[in-house]
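Consider a concrete sample entry:
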Amino acid sequence: MSSPVHSCSKTFSGYPCTHRQWRHAGHCRFVHGYSRSFRFWFRATALDENGFVVDFSGLRELEQRLAEQFDHTFLASADDPLLPTWRQLHEQGALDLRVMANVGMESSAELVWGWANELLLARDGGRTCCWRSEARENEKNAACYEALPAWFDA
């Protein structure tokens, strides 16, 4: 049996953005939007001086990064054949473009997992990590990414 572990989670919500899955044969190939939300699960090798796994007030940098990427933005995959058009529309002020390797929820969950762990490693020196992230497009659909960072000594 594995050792007991303390964990906690934090949700950030209210990030309306649009994207399209240009390779999809169905309606997902069209530009559409959601109000995305993200949930992070954290664990720690030991609790901090306050008895917390993660002090949520120390996650403002992560919250700002989520807002910069997903709040009222247009997400385009780096290989979208319409990327030159999206760039023109961005330059004309019609949309706020963010180019991603992949705009899907699975890739978004992996991306934000990495952001959370960058922050935690820099701040806590390896005491904490994000072991799971969820990217949710609505109340019905979500994708998760789960992994322990190589530097985390569980």
